[in-house]
Structure formats: C-alpha cells, structure tokens
C-alpha cells in the first residue's frame, strides 16, 4: 500500500516541476493587474519532436486506487494542466532506469499542475472528479516516427493499492 | 459598445484555435479510459524563442468591461488555458496590420482555452471570476533579447464598452 503525499515542489523535484502560482510572481504585467510566474516547466523534446498542446479527458478514479502499470516517455517531458479546480493523483516512480524504482503518490491541489521530466516513470492520468479535463503539453512526434516510439510500459508484478 | 459572442472554433478561426475537448477524441489512450484531442494549437515561435509554460493570475473583471488597449506579440503565439471551470472573456481585433481592425469579444465557456495566433491583436487576460488562474504557453525569449521586443500596444482613441 502506497500513501498519498501532498504535492510540493521540493518533494516532486526528482520527477519534474510543480506548476502553480504560489509565492510572489516573477513579473507583474498588464499594469499590475496580472502576475506572471515565468517559464516554470523544463520542456524537453528530442529526436525531431516538438512541443504541442493537446486536451485529455480521463475517466475519474476513486480511492483506494489499484495501480497495475507505470509508463514513461523516453523522448519527451509531459505537462498536465488541470482545467478544473479539482485535485488529482500524480503517481510516479523513482529512478530513470529500465526498471522503475520506489513508487510515490502525490495529491495535486486545486491550481496545481505538473511537468514530468523526460523518462520519468509515472501512472496514467488519474483525475478523482468529473470531468477529468486537462491540457497537456508534450512531444508531438515528427511524421513517419513509428507509433509507440515514445512509450514504454512496465506492468507491476503485483498491483499496488494507493490510498 | 461591443456585444459578447459565444466562443466557437469557426468564429474564432481568424484569430487562432479554441482548445477544448468537444467532439470525438483523435485517439483513445490508457486502455480506453482517456481521450486525446491531439495537437490542437498552432504553436509559432520565431527569432530564437522557444515554447514555455508560465502561470498567470489576473484580477477578475466585471461586465460591462471598459476596453482601453489591445496588444499583440509579433514573435509568438500565446495560449491561455484556464485552470478553473470558469468562463472568461477573450477580446481580439480583426486584421494583422499595424492598426487593429474591428474588435470582437468572445465568452470562453468552462473547459475552453484559446491559442492566439502570432501577431493577433487582443485584449489583456480578462477572467470574470476568482482566482483568475491560467496556464500560458507562449514564447520564451532568448537571453539578451531586449525587453518588449515581443509586445506592441495600441491604445484606442476612445475606450469601448464590452457587455
């Protein structure tokens, strides 16, 4: 069984960046009416890929959550930006080797997104509430790249319970 | 006075893309549990810039809204992805010339973001509700670029009322 930790920048640093508007903004724009927290994600797209914006809508899960598989994207970072103010689960695994290491689960608070480092093992998108809607900034493959070139899956020998 | 139109892909096409998860997804992923509306924004960053993710938090406005200025970014597209399910105003102007053309105002529904084409004249970010929180995908300037190289402003001869 895996406990759920609060999502903080420090705890999440091995896996990527927490994307939120906490602390002072880097800049004030629009005559002081808007704060800008500038360039908060380390976008990293290799092998001819480029950044793109897609929408994901995932079926909400409930707790306890049964984790059977983790995946990763060897060719690009992946940012999940919730389009509703609902918490969601972020499941990651330590280590960047061929086998995932210790699994961790974080609860993203309303107003928090994440950017997963390229090659970070992670669970699939797990909203906890309808509509499960996210904007995703990840790698768009160049034409002709074989499907699946940017996806590795690892099925756990035994499912884990996240609660 | 400018009336407010619903935000649809067809009406907004001259200005950029509506980013939402309507219609059938382009792909089903995660064993059918997640739809992917793939690569929906025309990201366009020139002159050494690159894509980045920033967070904006803007003070909510109320209607009628007094529009005094439009701006544009000659060096890059700019996507606004709301992180709450609240509608917000999207004000744009027709034409890509040095002087903005006819001004239009759209109401983005919950679950809708926009990507503004490079060079599109637009009003500053105008949420209508707290917390006014958005993820923004726009151009990150290369080091050494003069501040303001990617910003032009046009002050209207007379303020317009948007309602």
TrEMBL record, chains A, B:
GO terms for molecular function: ureidoglycolate hydrolase activity; ureidoglycolate lyase activity. Keywords: Hydrolase, Lyase, Purine metabolism. It is an enzyme of class 3 (hydrolase). Its EC number is 3.5.3.19. One of its GO terms (biological process) is purine nucleobase metabolic process. Gene3D superfamilies: Ureidoglycolate hydrolase (2.60.120.480). It catalyses: (S)-ureidoglycolate = urea + glyoxylate. CDD domains: cupin_UAH (cd20298). It comes from the Bacteria. It holds the Pfam family Ureidogly_lyase. Homodimer. This is Ureidoglycolate hydrolase. It comes from Rubellimicrobium thermophilum DSM 16684. The lineage of its organism: Bacteria, Pseudomonadati, Pseudomonadota, Alphaproteobacteria, Rhodobacterales.
């Amino acid at each position: 069984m895996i406990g759920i930790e609060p999502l903080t920048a420090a705890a999440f640093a091995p896996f990527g960046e927490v994307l939120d508007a906490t602390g002072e903004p880097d800049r004030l724009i629009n005559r002081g009416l808007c704060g800008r927290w500038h360039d908060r994600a380390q976008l990293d797209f290799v092998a001819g890929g480029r950044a793109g914006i897609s929408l994901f809508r995932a079926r909400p899960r409930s707790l306890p959550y049964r984790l059977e598989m983790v995946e990763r994207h060897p060719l690009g970072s992946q940012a999940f930006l919730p389009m509703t103010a609902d918490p969601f689960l972020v499941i990651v695994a330590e280590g960047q080797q061929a086998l995932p290491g210790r699994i961790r689960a974080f609860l993203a608070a309303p107003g928090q997104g994440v950017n997963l480092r390229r090659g970070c093992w992670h669970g699939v998108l797990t909203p906890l509430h309808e509509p499960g809607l996210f904007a995703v900034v990840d790698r768009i493959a160049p034409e002709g790249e074989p499907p699946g070139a940017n996806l590795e899956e690892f099925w756990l020998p035994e499912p884990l319970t996240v609660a």
